[in-house]
MBL fold metallo-hydrolase (Aurantiacibacter arachoides), 215 residues
Amino acid sequence: MRAAIIPVTPFQQNCSLVWCTSTMRAALVDPGGELDKLKAAVAKAGVTLEKIILTHGHADHCGQAGMLAEELGLPIEGPHEADRFWISRLDEDGPRFGMECQVFEPTRWLDEGDTVTVGEATFEVLHCPGHTPGHVVFFHRPSNFAFVGDVLFQGSIGRTDFPMGNHQDLLDAITGKLWPLGDGVTFVPGHGPTSTFGRERESNPFVSDAAIAAG
């Protein structure tokens, strides 16, 4: 498996192009906007795009996913159906952020324990609510690599002050579902630089072991 990060939208959201090196089949994770830029990255990598996978329903992550799926005839997998609330309001949320967005219906909603394939690579799906109620994380166990969307960042965690956000749910998802995957997991967050779970357990002011112990 290989991946390339392509920041898009005014929020510099980390869309990722991920592909199976055996088959050169690929997926875009959270193609929120700047579709010409994303299509150029696909062409440059020399891969065949087979699907779109989504971590959650916020506009910067999925606002133009439906447009791309329609244009290229691609299925959309994710997020969890609890984010239908957010996807259903993309038409109205987009203009608030200076973005053109389109409501869509995923081909497949995802749940805890599901898997998503990209070529011959398989990603485990973890339902990690808190930032949004239907947020999911994609974990590739063979390479110890995860796409975590806006659950966790280098030195921070996702906001929970949006409608249907829940701070305790987010903390529980991070400590109860992500940390058990191991300190060696490298992750791509929805914004900013990559990090590892181990580094965040040591130094993240919100979810480090010391911060959690202090309550």
